[in-house]
Amino acid sequence: MRDPALENKLSALRKFFRLYGNAAIAFSGGVDSTFLLKVAHDELGEKVLAVSAVSVLSPKHETEAAAAFCKKEGIRLVTIQIDPLKIHGFKNNPENRCYICKKEIFSKIRSLALENGIYTVCDGSNADDTGDYRPGMQALAELGIKSPLLECGFTKSEIRELSKEIGLPSWNKPSAACLASRFVYGEEITAEKLQMVENAEDFLQELGFRQKRVRIHGDNLARIEVMPEDFEKILNAKEKINNYFRSLGFKYVTLDIQGFRSGSMNEVIKNERN
């Protein structure tokens, strides 16, 4: 039997979409946006438009999975091409990089929605997102973007629970973030380095590591984050990993003994502000 508090949140989410009547959903194919899109489509049908931003910041397999989901569910999907490296100030990777990027992307999503007669644009932010440094949320507020999962109080674990219950393939999908989050603030983001990171993480995925990050430091160093229970597995494959990473251009390959954690590049900012 479903928890009454969770049932109330789901009812509030459904009511949200019925109230607005139509919606454009910023859709990445991740856990949150997949659940949000599914509920929106169940309530509004063809009055829902999924919008995916395609760029060098999103691994190719994520974009393909998002398109496959919409095709299977019969959801109208529009993709917009974004070149973040041409957005003023982005490639310099300042601390408000996420704000700069989201302002550009969601401005385009909002314009596309308006062209389709849709006045409500939603993203998949949830209640857990308020606990990290997320300057992109300021951009959403400035543009009037709605975050219904956050408004209804959904946590990540609750979204996973309901996603599993209704049969969404994304329910146990690893946490994801754009590839720019792998860079130290202040370090220039280039297409070449983004490709190095994507290839490195794809290689780890092929080896069976589901939750992983490859953080890049300068031109030479890769810092691998995996779950602590995977440390032994990483060390058993160290030669294979080291050889492949070096073929990508990394000179040094390290394992972060703290293990995987979302937003680890934000730790410096938090420490400076405390």
**CATH architecture title of the largest domain:** 3-Layer(aba) Sandwich
Distance between the termini: 43 Å
- What is the CATH topology of the largest domain? Rossmann fold
Helix fraction by DSSP (H/I, runs of at least 4): 40-55%
Which structural class do the helices and strands define? alpha/beta
- Could you give the count of β-strands? 7
Which residues sit in consecutive blocks of at least 5 with pLDDT less than 50? none
Strand arrangement, largest sheet?
Answer: 3-2-1-4
The rough form would be described as globular
Output the helix-strand order: HEHEHEHEHHHHEEHHEH
Mean pLDDT: 93
For the record, the count of structural domains works out to 2
Gyration radius from CA atoms, angstroms = 19 Å
The major pleated sheet works out as: 4 strands, parallel
Determine the strand fraction and express it as a percent band: 5-15%
What is the CATH homology-level superfamily of the largest domain? HUPs
CATH class of the largest domain: Alpha Beta
Give the count of helical stretches: 11
Description of the structure:
The chain has 274 residues and is of the alpha/beta class. The protein has two domains: 162 residues, HUPs (Rossmann fold), CATH 3.40.50; 95 residues, Alpha-Beta Plaits, CATH 3.30.70. The chain contains eleven helices and seven strands. The chain has a four-stranded parallel β-sheet, sandwiched between helices. Helix 1 packs across helix 2 and helix 4 packs parallel to helix 5. The longest helix is centred in the middle third of the chain and has 19 residues. It is globular and about 55 Å long. The chain starts with a helix and ends with a helix. The mean pLDDT is 93.
